[in-house]
Every structure is written in C-alpha cells, then in structure tokens.
Fold this sequence. Notes:
Blueprint: E1 3-12, E2 15-22, E3 27-31, H1 39-49, E4 76-85, H2 91-96, E5 117-126, E6 132-138, E7 141-143, H3 145-154, E8 164-165, H4 167-175, H5 178-189, H6 191-255, H7 259-405, H8 408-532, H9 534-543, E9 548-551, H10 552-555, E10 556-558, H11 560-570, E11 577-579, H12 582-595, E12 602-604, H13 617-621, E13 626-629, E14 634-636, H14 641-648, E15 652-654, H15 657-661, E16 669-671, E17 676-677, E18 683-684, H16 699-820, H17 825-971, H18 987-1004, H19 1010-1073, E19 1076-1081, E20 1092-1097, E21 1104-1105, H20 1111-1128, E22 1133-1137, H21 1145-1158, E23 1163-1167, H22 1171-1176, E24 1179-1185, E25 1191-1196
Parallel strand pairs: 3-23, 3-24, 8-22, 11-12, 15-16, 22-23
Antiparallel strand pairs: 1-2, 1-4, 4-5, 5-6, 6-7, 9-11, 10-14, 13-15, 16-17, 17-18, 19-20, 20-21, 24-25
Helix pairs in contact: 4-20, 5-19, 6-17, 6-18, 6-19, 7-8, 7-16, 7-17, 8-9, 8-16, 8-17, 8-19, 9-12, 16-17, 16-19, 19-20
Protein name: Chromosome partition protein Smc
Family: Belongs to the SMC family.
InterPro entries: P-loop_NTPase, RecF/RecN/SMC_N, SMC, SMC_hinge, SMC_hinge_sf, SMC_prok
Amino acid sequence: MVHIKRVELTNFKSFGGTTSIPLLPGFTVVSGPNGSGKSNILDALLFALGLSSSKGMRAERLPDLVNNSQSRKTTVETRVTVTFDLSDLTFAELEEEPTELEGEGETGARGLVAEGEWSVTRKLRVTKQGTYTSTYYINGEPCTQTELHEQLNRLRIYPEGYNVVLQGDVTGIITMKPRERREIIDELAGVAQFDRKIVLAREKLDTVKEREERSRIVEQELISQRDRLAKDRAQAMKYQQLKAELQEKSLWWAVLNYQTLQQQLWRYREQIEAGDRSHSELTEQFQLQQSQIKQATTTLEALNALVKAMGEEELLQLQSTLATQEAELASQQQRRRELETAAQKASEQLGQTQAAIEEHSQTLANLQAQKKTETELEQQRESDRHVAETSLNQTRREADQIANQAESWMVQQTDLHRQIEALQKSLNPQKTEQARLRERAEQLARQTQEREQALESLQGELTTHQQTLQRATSGVSEATAQVESLSRIVTAVEEDLSVQQDTLNRLLEEQRERQRKLDRLEAEQQARAEAAGTYATMAIQKAGLTGVCGLVCQLGRVEPQYQLALEIAAGGRLGHIVVEDDTVAAEAIALLKRQKAGRATFLPLNKIRPSSERMETDTLATLDGLVDLAVNLIEYDRPYHGIFRYVFGTTLVFKSLNQARRYLGQYRMVTLDGELLESSGAMTGGSSTSRSSLHFGSADNQLRAATGAIASLKERLAEIERILTRCHQAITEGTQTVKQRSAELIEAKQNLREATQQVAQVQSQIVAITTTIEQTRSQLNTAQQELSTARERLAALDSTIPAAEQQLQSDRETLAQLERTNSHTEWQQIQVRLRQQEAHLQAQETALREVQQRLGYIETTTAALGEKLAADHLRAADFQQQQQSLNQQITDTQNRITTINSQISQTRAAISQVEQRLGTAKQERDRAEAQLREMQTAQSQLEWQIQKLEETQQGRREQLNIKQQQLETQKAELPDPLPTIPEKLDLATLQREIKSLTKRMEDLEPVNMLALEEYEHTTTRLEELSQKLATLHGERTELLLRIENFTTLRRRAFQEAFDAVNQNFQTIFAELSEGDGYLQIDDPEDPFNSGLNLVAHPKGKPVQRLTSMSGGEKSLTALSFIFALQRYRPSPFYAFDEVDMFLDGANVERLAKMIKGQAEQAQFIVVSLRRPMMEASQRTIGVTQARGAYTQVLGIKLS
C-alpha cells in the first residue's frame, strides 16, 4: 500500500533543528497538549505538497512558517521533506492515472518509480528584508508546483481534494453556502475540464462567426456591385443587340438584289418565328406541369408523414432485423455445409481405414492358416528327419562293426566319418540359422524402410497440420483482435450515440421551453401594443410609410423627477403619431382602414396649431411652489416645438397639491405627485393602480427591450434548430454505423468461433499424429536394434561357416581317396548305403529348414500386419471421434439454424402485421407516388421537346448565318450591272430602319462594355463566397453541436459524481449516526445554478437540514460528507486535525471505528485528544513542548 513513510521538518514553525517523524501504514493518532505543535505536522504536509496557502496553514505569510528562533539570522530557511513508500505500486497502477496536463517531458526522470521511495521537498528561504523564495524538489531535483501536482495526481493526491482535513474544514462545510458546497461536487466530477473545452469551442465559434460575418459583409457588397453592374450589363447587351441588328440590316442592304437568296432568308425567319411560338406554348405547358408536380409532391409528403407516423420506422427496423437474421442464417447454413463436407471426408477416411483393417485381418487369417499348415508340415519333416537319422545311425553302427574287423585304414576311415558327421552337425544348424537370419534381416530392412517412409509421411502430415494450426491460431488472433476492435468501435459509437441522444432530448426540452417563452413574450408585446395604442403605430411602421416621425412619447426626454407629472399632463396625447404633413396622415388612416388595425390620432407638422395663450414670465415668478411650465421641462428636437406646445399648452407644474390649490380655476396645473387640476376647477388624483404603458423616453426602450429579448430567443431557437438538424443527422449516421458494425461484430464472432473450432480440431489431429509418430518411432527403434543384432550374428556366421565348409570338404576328399584304396566289398556297400542315408538325412534337414524359414517369414509378416492393424484401429478410432465431433457440431449448427428460422418467422409475422396496419395508407401513398412519377415523366417529355425545339431553332439560326455569309460571298461575284431588286423589299424602308438603329445606338452611348466581363467576374466571386459561407455554416453547426455535447457530458459527469457521493453519504451517515440522510440539489433540472443541501435524519429525531442541527450533529453530517467525497475519489493517505472536537464520546467511538475500517485501504494520520480515538488507533505519536523549547516527538505503543 502506498503511504507516507517519513516526514522530516527543519525549522518549521514550532520544530527547531531537524526532526524526522517515521510513519507506518494504517491508523496513526498524533496527540499532545494544546499548543504543543501537533497540528504543525499536518501543516508541514500541506506546506511540502503545496496543498494549501499560508492562511490554510494558520499563518498570515509564508515567512511566518519559519521557526521564531531563526529570526535573528540574516537569512533563514525552513525545509520539509515528505517521503512516500512506493514499493507496492505497480506500473499498471501508474498508467491508470495519466496526467491530463501537457509539458511533462522533463518530469519523467524525477517522476514516480514503481519501486522504492519517492520524496518531495519544499524549501523556504527568507531574507532579513522579508523577501522570500520557495522551491520544490522531487527526488532532490528542482521542479515547479505544477509539475509536482502532476505527479501527485498520479498518486491520487489532489490540491482541491480532502486529503488533509483541518479544524476549520469541518466548520467550513457547515457554514459554506449551498452553491459553494455544490461546487465541491463540480471539482470531483471534473466540470472545470468541460468548462474549459466549452470555452475553447466558444472561442473558435466566435472566430468562425466573425469570419462568417465578414464574409456576409463582402457578400452584400458583391451583391450590390452585381446589381449595379446588371444595369450596365443590360445596357451593354442591348447595345450589342442593336449593333448586331445594324450589321444584319447592313448585310441585307448588300444582298437585296438576290431574290432567291432573300426568299430563303425569309423562309428561315418564318420557321424560326413559328418555332418560337411553339417554344412559348411548350414553356407554358411545362410551367403548368411544374405547378401540378409541386401540388402532388405536397400531397405525397403528407402521405409519407402519415405512413411514418403509423409505423414505417418500426417496419424498417424489423426489415433490418430480418436482414441480419437471414445473414446469420446463411452463415450458419454455410457452416453446416462445411461441417457436413468435413464429416463426409472423415467418413470416407474411416471407410478406407476400415477396409484396410478388413484386408489386413483377412491377410492375417490367411497367414494363420498357412502357419498352421506349415507347422504340421514342420512336424512331418521333423519326423522324417528323425527316421532318416535313426536309419543312418543304425548303418553307422553296422559300419563300426565292420570297421572293428578291418585293418588300420578302417580306423582312419571311421575317424574321418565321425569328423565329417561332427562337422555336419555343427554346420547344418549354423546354415539354418544363417538362412533364417538373412530372411529376418531382409524382412526387418523392409519394415525399417516402410516405417521410415511412414514416419516421413507422418512428419510431413504433422508439418502440414502444424502449419494449418499456425494459420488457424493466427486466424484466431486476428479474429480476436477484430472482435475486440469492433467491440471497442461499437462501444465508442454507442457512447457517442448516447451523448447525441441526450443532447437531442435536452435541446428539444430547451426548444419547447424557449418557444413557450417566445410565444408568451410575443403575446405580451402584442397585448401591450394593443393596450397602448401602438398596435396601429406598429402596423404603420411595418408598412414603411415615409414621413412618419414617431409617437409623442418617443420624441421627448424627461428627467425622472418630472416624468410622472408630465405624463399625467400629456394624458392620451402621449400615443399620438407625429407625421410630416397631412398627406402622410391621410395615407396612414387609409392603411389602418384597409388592414383593420385600429385607430390613431395623427399630428401633422405642417398643420398643427398650438394654443396661442401665453404665460408672462413675471406672472410665473409670483406663483408660490411653481416648478415651471410643463413644456419647458421636456427636451425635444426643435422641429417638434409646436407638437409639445399643442400637447401641454400652458399647463403648470407645481411641487405639491396644497401649493397648487391656491390657483385652482385660474390655470391648468399638475403636481409632482400626479394630481391634475383643470382650469375649470376639476381636480383628479388619488392612488394609481394602473398607468398607461407609454412613458417619455421609455416606450421605445420597452419596445426595443422586448424586441431584443424576442430576437435573442428567435436566434437561439434558430441555433437549436440547426443543431437539432445536425444532431439528427449524427444520430442517423451513428445508428447506421452501429447496425453495420454490429453486423460485422456478429460475423467476426462467428468467424472466431469457427476458427477456434478449427484450432481444436487440428490440435486433436496433431495429438493423434504425434501419438502415431511416437509409436512408429518406437517400433522403428526396436526393428533397427533387432536388425543390428541380426546383422552382427550374420557377420559372425559368415566368417565361421566358410572355414567349417572348407574343413568338411577337405575331410570328404580324404575319405574318398581312402575309400578308393579299399577293395572290401562289404565295406563298400555299407559305405554306399551310408552315403545315401546321409544324403537323405541332409535332404530331410534342408526340407525342414525351408519349412522353418517359411514359418519365420509368416511370423514376421504376422507381427508386421498386427502392428499395421493396431495403427489402423487407432486411426479408425481417431476418425470416429472426429466424425462424432463433427456430427455434434452439425447438430448444434442445425439447432441454431432452427432457432434463427423461428426468429425469422416471428420477425416476418411482425413485419406482416405492420404492413397490414400500413396497407391502406401505403397504397394511397404508392398511388400518389405513381401519379407523381407520371407527371415527372410528362414533364421530362416536355423538357425534351423544348430542348429539341431549341436545338432545331439553333440549327435554323445557324443556317440563317450561313446564308448571310453566302450572300456576302456572292456580292463579289455579282455581275455588273446588278440585277433588279425584288419589289417586296423597299430600299427606303430598309434605310430608315438602319438609320433608326444607328440613332438608337447613339442614344445608348456611352456604353460600359466592360460591364459584361465584370458582371461575370463578380458573379463567380459571389458563387465562391457562397461556397465559403456554406463551409463556415457547417463548421459553425459542428462547433455548436460540440458545445452542446460537452454540455451533455458535463451534466452527465456531475450527475454520476453526485449519485455516487450521495450513495456514499447515505451509507456513511447511517454508520456514524445510526440515522439516515441524503444530499439534495435545490433544482435537479438546473444543478449548475443550484445549491447542495445536507439533509439528515438522526436517530430519534425528525428530518432536519444542516442549519437546524446541533453542533455535534453538524459535525457528524459534515464528516459524513467528507468521507463520502474521499470514498468517491480515494487517496493513499488522509490526515485529520481534531475533527472529533465537537463530538461526544459515543460519536467519537463510531468515528474511530469507521477510520479504523477505512485504514485497511489507506493511511490515516489523525490529530486528536480523545481517548476512544487513541484506543482505536494502531499506534500513537506523542507531541510535547517544554516552555521556550522546540516541539519534540515520541512514539507511544498502547497496550
């Protein structure tokens, strides 16, 4: 657990010299007498970590933190070092809290390290003059306070947080205003960050708005310039037209003598005129068709809105769901086909393996039968050999008897026979063994070669499967990465879509509220205007009549102390309309009649005649209490002097009623309090419950204020409408993106499942092949060892047998030579019989060896077939397992297909219901749409006919120009004298036309022919500027939407923080006070303009607000709030300074119990004098201070 390991104080407040205070994790209490300096330890933490100002550390200025004993020195210094133990901190935890500030490049070297210690030091150096410097150090390297706070934020230690709670902080929570209490939640939620983003966006919006306004100004200038150039351009085009006509007439003058060509020219003109008439008729038909299409479009839009309201969006959603389900169904069906193909292939391989098993079993059975036959034959051959050997032995015994009777050569012959017999007995088994070993060696060599080939084939198959596994594993990784990427994308888009939807809902609510306010203001303005008689004035001003000067009240300015008196004196004449002359008044009256806009009184400046009665100055001076003539107390422009003389006449203004009463019946008077005294003696006065809304100098202001408020509301409503349009577009795009990405995610998950299944299948195949390889390799090693042994024995026999055969051959030659010298007949006969029997015995032994060799081959072949049969059985078992797995997958896929088909049926049923509901409306809409398409087709046909006619007319005019050129060409070729001019064309008439054209051109001069080019240039610039304005409009809309989204996120972040802190507060308050409580926002609909109240219900008492509680209850409630804040944003350590001072013993025990529980997750350092707090702590640090000495610290271990 990260915690403060040590605090080292040097000359800090009451600590003189250097004092090092070790601290351990868990719950530590610092206690000591009042004034001993125990709270200075917490002040040292605040000082070193830069978490508070000097006043927060109970000092007026930072130099006051230096120990008093150092004040006599020239330069004094205090230093505090806080060392953190980061041994339990991991790099992952460091990365969880990245700093949001920039410029942290140089802090990396002295930043947090996931192992060991991390120290923060602050030095304060104070000079004799009182100036000081404060320096921060991280691990001994200087840094700024901002860099330090960046690193502390990564440890979840915040300057605005409640890591260190001093004595006044609890009281501050109690006494602070509700709005300040709510701002604490703002800090926790990071509202300031959103405010900064909103400010930056608004600054950029202002820049874009300024650019747009500048462009609008340029646009207006270009429009004015274009309109001005349009007149010059029209004149220049007229001049060009006249000039072209003059040239044409001149050409006619040159070709009048050519009758044929002239007739052709007239024919073309007639055709062109006829085409123009047709063009006009077609144009009229086209315009009529356009109006019909517009009407049909309106009808279609109404029907579309009706269909949409009846559930078309639901139908589209169901159709989208159906498309997704059908896509998944196709995927599952493709998967089933692939699995069925794989199952069929496995079945074929299983069939082949089972056929091989049957073939090998049949061969094995044949070999067993052959072995039985050969065994019986071996027994027969052994019996024959035994009979032959018995007969030979009998003959030899007879030969021995004869030999005993013979001479010495007989002895020699007998010895040779015995020697030959011994050699044959020794040599025959060796030859038999040699033949058997050769056969076995050949068989083992073949088996070794077969197994090596099989091993090589299995190795290749294993390599292939491993490559397949590698590709499949890579596919799984890619599919997993794709699923994760798509999941992140879908989550991000859904989050953005949620923000957009919240923004949309909030803006719709604001739109409704502002629209209601706008309607109310407009209604009030209209009612006020009607009540004040200005409704008629507004109608006249809207009409834009020239010569209207305004209302009487708008043309005069009055000081506040005279306003009531003068308004009472003017009476209804305040609402009269001043005009320049009676003609304007007559036009205005006629306008009011036409529009039925009410009545009004007009004061024409040219006809108004004020009263001729005059008041002498001397007379006025004698009147006691007189202020002045009413007309003298108002300011106005000179042209309106007669108007105000007419309005006020000789009305006098007096200070009070008593003073005016003296002159009652002599003058018309008004007092400053609003009493009116007529010259007839009538008096008007009393309380004024309602007055006219017209006032001097204020009618225009009121109208302007109301108009300004309405304009502001309309501007905001237009802005909201723009944002809503863009927001709807963003929601539509986001919804489409979510649908698309969700479909891609479903497909990616399906691919991942398929890839995972393929990996499992290939892995099982690899395991089976590996097992087969191991078995084959073991069999190969055994065969190789047996082959090596056989070859070694064969080599030994090959070296022994030739010598024995050579010795046998030598003995036989010696015996034959000896027998040739013997003439004894009986001996010869016995010898012949003996050789025959020996030959017969040898033949029997050879036959026996052949049978034994065949038996050995059968046994070897049987063993090999047994091994192949075992391998085939293993492969068959693998294929059967693979087939079962594939069949299970096919069953699962089929079940999924069945489920999807059921879902598709349900979706189609829902679509059918919606379509049935939409049936009649959609048919009407489709008919309207078909009619509209027919009209559009007819319009296109008309447009094509008009275009075709224009092309024909253009061709005719081109032919006309060609004929004119031909006429000019023929002019040079005309014979002399010229032919007679046709009578249909009068030269005088043509000449008059030419002169008329020339005169008209002269009347137009001078002509600005550059206006043609300048007009086109200005129009081009205007189009470019319009595109630029459209771009700026889009940027402005995007910025407005961004600001609204930031506002939504700001509100959401605050609400999440408030809900979490409120939940924490309820839990903690219930634990501390055994009651219940909650946090309350004054206006939940507008939390950022509201306050935060702590509402508590202590046990056995009614529900109370914070201001109504006792001191202890307030402290418990404030502490609960502080704990709730800490639990929402936990830190590695907390320090409390006598927060239990206002609590009784029972509440201190509950507070200590809570701190003890919290100390399992964080380090707690509590300054307290209360016994329950010290008893609950894990350790206590004692602080004491002798009189005039430094503060001393010692550890106390409580039993």
